[in-house]
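To illustrate the input format used throughout this study, we show a single complete record. The first block contains the structure-token representation of the backbone; no residue identities are included at this stage. The design step must infer an amino acid for every position from geometry alone.
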């Protein structure tokens, strides 16, 4: 898939370390939100480990020629994405959408979201979900602009943080 010089592809083994670094560099902006440094370190460790998560269905990357600009992960259910079968989500879920700080503002996230939507449609799904928190206000604005609507019935608490749910009806 090629759009605006952004190529969306599936992650391959020799790109994993680059994607791990991209995730860390992308999410680094939220470090100041964590008052407990151990929680931040746990969050970073989870982000890094996510690239090897056996429950992920597909990891997409956005490239321009050789540089990886962004990534997102797709899961088949809330049980696979969060180990939360009680959420009763049996449609694709986007996790860890990340765009390298130097690549922001170029439409990378929109292209990744379009590819996630294409994946959901290819799976016969009629909904696509993602979860986020209040600290990610720019991301929330993007999701709402893209057409995601808040779905409070699929939200949950992670320690003292409300994890908000957004749903795109296909």
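Output of the design step:
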């Amino acid at each position: 898939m090629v759009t605006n010089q952004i190529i969306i592809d599936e992650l391959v083994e020799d790109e994993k370390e680059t994607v791990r670094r991209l995730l860390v560099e992308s999410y680094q902006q939220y470090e100041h939100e964590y008052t407990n440094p151990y929680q931040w370190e746990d969050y970073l460790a989870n982000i890094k480990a996510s690239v090897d998560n056996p429950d992920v269905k597909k990891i997409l990357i956005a490239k321009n020629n050789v540089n990886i600009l962004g990534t997102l992960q797709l899961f088949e259910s809330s049980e696979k994405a969060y180990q939360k079968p009680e959420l009763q989500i049996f449609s694709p879920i986007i996790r860890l959408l990340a765009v390298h700080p130097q690549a922001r503002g170029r439409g990378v996230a929109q292209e990744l979201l379009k590819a996630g939507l294409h994946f959901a449609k290819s799976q016969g799904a009629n909904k696509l979900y993602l979860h986020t928190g209040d600290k990610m206000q720019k991301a929330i604005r993007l999701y709402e602009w893209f057409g995601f609507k808040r779905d409070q019935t699929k939200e949950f608490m992670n320690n003292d943080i409300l994890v908000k749910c957004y749903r795109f009806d296909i």
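Structural context for interpreting the output: Residues 2-169 form a domain with the Aminopeptidase fold (CATH 3.40.630.30). The two ends are 20 Å apart (CA to CA).
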